[in-house]
Structure formats: C-alpha cells, structure tokens
Specification:
Number of strands: 31
Oligomer: single chain
InterPro entries: Ac_CoA_lig, ACAS_N, AMP-bd_C, AMP-bd_C_sf, AMP-binding_CS, AMP-dep_synth/lig_dom, ANL_N_sf
Bound molecules: ligand 6R9
Catalytic activity: acetate + ATP + CoA = acetyl-CoA + AMP + diphosphate
Enzyme class: ligase
Radius of gyration: 24 Å
Helix content: 25-40%
CATH architecture of the largest domain: 3-Layer(aba) Sandwich
Structural class: alpha/beta
CATH topology of the largest domain: Rossmann fold
Keywords: Acetylation, ATP-binding, Ligase, Magnesium, Metal-binding, Nucleotide-binding
Family: Belongs to the ATP-dependent AMP-binding enzyme family.
Shape: globular
Strand content: 15-25%
Strand order of the largest sheet: 12-11-8-6-7-14-15-24
CATH superfamily of the largest domain: ANL, N-terminal domain
Length: 646
C-alpha cells in the first residue's frame, strides 16, 4: 500500500455535479429517507403510468421480496431511445470500433431507433412475445445492443451469454432459461482471430433442445450450415418487416434480463433484473460516478456478455442520452497501443476498464502509452476485481498523466450497478480503495459469527437494505436466492466479498471469501472447474483453488487425482487443460495442474481447501492446523510435488 491520498483536482471540484458536501448531504438523505430520495430519482425516467409506492422490500429470510416502484409502468427501450429523439435524434448514440482499426461505425439515436424497432419486429416475426426468453450469443457488434434493446422494447427477457463460453456452457443457460430463440453471428472476430459462434450455437441447441429459431447476424460472411426452418439470417427477415414497432407497456417489476453468474456451489445462477429500478439505478450511477455531461464520449471496455456491459455500455449510458463506445477487439491488437489509439481517434473523455487489462498493459511498458496523446481523457475507471496500488499508480500517472481521477467501482452482477465508489468531484482517492458507498447503499462489515463490526475493521461485506438495482431472484429458483444471499448473515445481503474499513470510513475490498475465484475479472466457481475435470474419464477427483497471478489477479490451480492405473504425463496435463476449455470455455483454462495421489481430507471426507490454497500460494511454512486430517502425510506429498506456477 502506498498510503498516498489524492485530493480532488481543483478543476474537478469546480465542474463536477457534486462536491464532498453535496455527496454527504445526498447520502444522508438517501439512507434516512429512501422513499423520498428514490421517489425523486425515479423522475429521471419517463413513466407510462406513475407509481404510487416507492420501496417495498424485505431481507427477512422467511420472506425475501424486493419491489421498487411496483405499480408504475414504463419501457426501457423507450427511455433509452425514443424519449431522446426530439432533442438528440442526430446525436451519436453508439460509436462502434471494430477489431480491425479500419472498421468503425457511428449510430445516431434516430438510427438506433430504426435498428432496434426492426430487430424487435424480426423477433416478433419469429413468434417472440412478452415474457419469452431470448438467448443472445453475439460478439461485440452493434447488433448485440440492438438485440438487447429489441427484447426490452417488446417485453422479452434477454439472456446474454459471453461469446467465449463453450457450447456446453451455452446449452446449460439455454436450458435453464427455457429459451427457444438464439441470436448469434456467423463468426466473431477478436484480436484478428475468428470465433465459430454459429457452430457453437448449433452444438448448444442440439444439446439443450427446445430451440426453434437461430437468428444469424452476418459478421464475417463466412459460410455456415443453416438448418432449414430453424436458422435464418437476420438481414433476410429484416428486409421483410416494418420499421416501426411500438414499445410494450411494462410493469416496473417485469423482468428485463437474466444473466448467469458463478457462485460457490452448483451451476451458474440466473440473476434476474427487472425494469424500472434497474434503469433508475444504472442511470443515476452512470451520471454521478462518471460525472457524465452532455457531449462527453464515454467508453467502457467490457463485453456485453458481462453485467458491466449491460449496465455501463448499454442501459445506463443510453438512459442518459450519452454517446457510448463499443469495442469489438482486445487491448493488445494490433499493438499494445490500441486502447490509447482508440481514445485519440474518438476523443474519449471517460474510460472505464479492468485491472487485468491495466496490469497487462503496464507490463508492456510506458512507451506504447506515451506515443499517444490521450489529451481528451479526463476520467478513468476500474472494475471487476481489486486493483493493486502499483497498477492504480501507473494508470493514474502514465495513462492519466496525473490529471484524471480514477473511480474504482465495486459492484456485482447481483447488484445491477455500482455500490461502492468514489465520485470524481467529491472523493479523495486512496489507491486500492473503492472508497465510499453510493447513494442508498448501507454497507456493513461483519465477523464470522455475523456480529456487526464498527469503525476501522475487517470482515465480510454485507449490505443491510435494498437499492433499486438489486437482483430480484434467481431465475426459476427463489429458494436458492434466499439461501445464497440472505441466510449466511440473517436479514442482510451477503456479497461473498471480504472487506476492510479504514479510520476514514473508506472501504477496501479484499477479494472473495467464498469458493469463487476472479480470473482476469471473470467470475468462476471452483466447483464448476472441478466438475468439468471429474467429467474426464481419466480423472477420479479434483480440487481447484485460486492463487495470486501477476496479470490475471488470480490464476486457476487444479489438484487432480487420476483413476487407478492412469499415469501422470505432460500429454495428459495438456489434454485436461484442453478438456476444461471445451467444457466451460477458454476463461476457465487451468494455469497449473498438479497430479496428486490423494487430496487432504478431514475424517468426515471434506477436502481441506485452506491447505490447498496455501500450497498453491507457496506458503508452506504456514499450513495451519493439519491434525484433523484423515491422513496428514498427504500434505507432504503435495508440498514436495508442487508445480511452479506461471
Ligand atoms: C461488476 C462485476 C463481482 C465480483 C465482486 C468482487 C469483484 C468487482 C471490484 C471487485 C474489488 C472492485 N469486484 N469490482 N473487487 N474492487 N472495484 O465485476 O461483477 O462479474 O459479478 O463480479 O468482482 O469480488 O464480488 P461480477
């Protein structure tokens, strides 16, 4: 920790929406009078029918129920598009920057209206109705945003699946959502390489069953097999449908989307977000956290397959009438200057990315950054995992030339939007700290027994009352929602994160305290990787833990016990890595596989992950109590055969 504090720059305290006094006052009001505060904030969106009740929420595990603005009606696409037409029809809504620096496209609000309406009519032509689930498996092309907004327009529920997931992972999500329609592309393009999206969608549809339409957007124009009756090219039907499509009137609590995310147990959960509260919350956070003003060019580098892409590429920015940049490529293609070149090309004011990208670019040195101008930049953001102070300092000094504040935003798929964050005109920054709670957010740090800790302390992070962007349930499994989030610390939302609060009341997220690992900003359950490994015919048992990784934050370390008669070998190691990539997707590739004749277990048969974590972290001296192990000698073997991690 550098211990350094960065004051709010003088020009920022002048131009920002909020200074520290305004933050303090609004924060106090937001938590002492949530009905008044959020009732007013709901005025940032158009309502078809006004609500009469603001907050109706309970975290009581016998009756977890979260409703905001429940009797009002509105439509998300209307708020993100139609209502802007009169004042900003010719303003650019989306700047698309392709993987190849020569490819780009600008889409005005008027054009967005036409594209989304047409897309909505195409979905209708394929029988999609209000409440139906549509799976979107697309690369980062404008059609991904069109498809999401088209669903919102007609009241369909989208489930976006990251293009890096395997056919199996995609199939699981299609099945769980009971989705009959998949929107995909012939192929995706990333870093100059093709991704066989349609082929993956075909395999997933076969596995999942129940898919009656695969809508194919042409991205590379590669020839892909098309199954008659089921598969159709988007542009072929788009020509045949009207350009005009009215917005469905949606209840505030009607579902907007499902997004699958990993937890510590079982299969990924379908996190369900609804209409009005989510939109109000993403809009207010996008405005204040990024201090978004009319005319700013805003760029979030996330993929729409993750919640950051949903909330801060599409919904928050478009609700605010912003210009949002959508990037198809990767940070190091064609060179390590790509991010900074895109910033110069499109005069980006606000740039929001992930620590893993910052660390990777930092390793490439200052030169690729310094050869670009970046003079348009005035604010930097970070999200997805804790940012180490070294990376923070480099981002601030080299990328932002000491003039751009950094907003380190902590939040989750479940929270819908940012919960702990600096506000650039109000908050002094400490590198590595997400600083203070956003409006309406009441964090609580608890000890293992669930006691509330006060003042400077460290423990597990809970949130004690609801905010409008909170997930409403696990799709199709409300009991799992209650069990996962409200039972560990009764009556409180448990985030799964560890957290320290310092003497200034600043929050420092220390990472997950459950069996979730965060690899390059992607959430993975260790249980998911384990079940992929044990599905291999030569594997009898597997235990997976995270370990510190210079660029990815955490790497994946897998201990594997083979079936009797199988011999460890380099070939088998490579085969298992390839197997996990195929089962889950490249993001889940184990970095290290250690073959272990047996795993450390308690007498009741539970694997002692604490020990496995220590060995993976190279902390042999500090293995803690091993006396409860059924066979303590197992540990010596593991230590002696530890694999060097990359
Ligand atoms: C938005 C997003 C959520 C988990 C979360 C935490 C980690 C996210 C962070 C951060 C420290 C930050 N996380 N932002 N940790 N500082 N600024 O990433 O959602 O994919 O659901 O991941 O990511 O561990 O619990 P999601």
């Amino acid at each position: 920790m550098t211990g350094k504090v960065y004051e709010v720059p003088a020009d920022w305290s002048k131009r920002a929406y909020l200074d520290d006094a305004a933050y303090q006052e609004m924060y106090k009001r937001s938590v002492s009078d949530p009905n008044g505060f959020w009732g007013e904030q709901a005025g940032r969106i158009d309502w078809f029918k006004p609500f009469t009740r603001v907050k109706n929420t309970s975290f009581d595990p016998h009756n977890v129920s979260i409703k905001w603005f429940e009797d009002g009606t509105t439509n998300v696409a209307h708020n993100c598009i139609d209502r802007h037409l009169a004042t900003r029809g010719d303003q650019v809504a989306i700047i698309w920057e392709g993987d190849d620096p020569k490819d780009d496209r600008k889409i005005t609000y008027k054009e967005l209206h036409a594209e989304v309406s047409r897309f909505a009519n195409v979905l209708k032509a394929r029988g999609v109705k209000k409440g139906d689930r549509v799976t979107i498996y697309l690369p980062m092309i404008p059609e991904a945003a069109f498809a999401m907004l088209a669903c919102a327009r007609i009241g369909a529920i989208h489930s976006v699946v990251f293009g890096g997931f395997s056919p199996d992972s995609l199939a699981g999500r299609i099945e769980d959502a009971k989705s009959a329609v998949i929107v995909t592309a012939d192929e995706g393009v990333r870093g100059g390489r093709k991704v066989p999206l349609k082929a993956n969608a075909d395999a997933a549809a076969t596995r999942a069953g129940g898919v009656d339409t695969i809508l194919v957007v042409r991205r590379t124009h590669a020839s892909v097999p098309m199954q008659a009756g089921r598969d159709v090219y988007y542009d072929d039907i788009a020509k045949t449908v009207p350009a005009d499509c009215p917005c469905e009137e949606m209840g505030a609590e009607d579902p907007l989307f499902i997004l699958y995310t990993s937890g510590s147990t079982g299969r990924p959960k379908g996190v369900l977000h609804t209409t009005a509260g989510y939109l109000v919350f993403t809009a207010i956070t996008h405005q204040y956290v990024f201090d978004y003003h009319d005319g700013d060019i805003y760029w979030c580098t996330a993929d729409v397959g993750w919640v950051t892409g949903h909330s801060y590429i599409v919904y928050g920015p478009l609700a605010n009438g912003a210009t949002t940049l959508m990037f198809e490529g990767v940070p190091n293609y064609p060179s390590n200057s790509r991010f900074w070149e895109v910033i110069d090309k499109h005069k980006v004011d606000i740039f929001y990315t992930a620590p893993t990208a910052i660390r990777a670019l930092m390793q490439a040195g200052d030169e690729p950054v310094k050869k670009t101008s970046r003079k348009s930049l005035r604010l930097l953001g970070s999200v997805g995992e804790p940012i180490n102070p070294e990376a923070w300092e480099w981002y601030h000094r080299v990328v932002g030339e000491d003039r751009c504040p950094i907003v380190d935003t902590w939040w989750q798929t479940e929270t819908g939007g940012i919960l702990i964050t600096p506000l650039p005109g109000a908050t002094k920054l400490k590198p590595g700290s997400a600083t203070r709670p956003f409006f309406g957010v009441l964090p609580q740090i608890v000890d293992a027994a669930g006691n509330q800790l006060d003042g400077a302390c460290e423990g597990s992070l809970c949130i004690v009352d609801s905010w409008p962007g909170q997930m409403r349930t696990v799709y199709g499994d409300h009991e799992r929602f209650v069990q996962t989030y409200f039972s560990t610390y009764v009556g409180r939302y448990f985030t799964g994160d560890g957290c320290r609060r310092d003497e200034d009341g600043y929050y420092w997220i220390t990472g997950r305290v459950d069996d979730v690992i965060n690899v390059a900003g992607h959430r993975l359950g260790t249980a998911e990787v384990e079940s992929a490994l044990v599905a291999h015919p030569k594997v009898s048992e597997a235990a997976v833990v995270g370990y510190p990784h210079d660029i990815k934050g955490q790497g994946i370390y897998a201990y594997v016990t083979l079936m009797t008669g199988q011999q460890p070998s380099e070939e088998l190691r490579a085969e298992l890595v390839a197997w996990v990539r195929k089962e889950i997707g490249p993001i889940a590739s184990p970095d290290v596989i250690q073959f272990a004749p047996s795993l450390p277990k308690t007498r009741s048969g539970k694997i002692m992950r604490r020990i496995l974590r220590k060995i993976a972290e190279n902390e042999f001296g500090n293995l803690g109590d091993t006396s409860t192990l059924a066979d303590p000698t197992v540990v010596d073997d593991l230590v002696n055969n530890r694999q060097a991690s990359k």
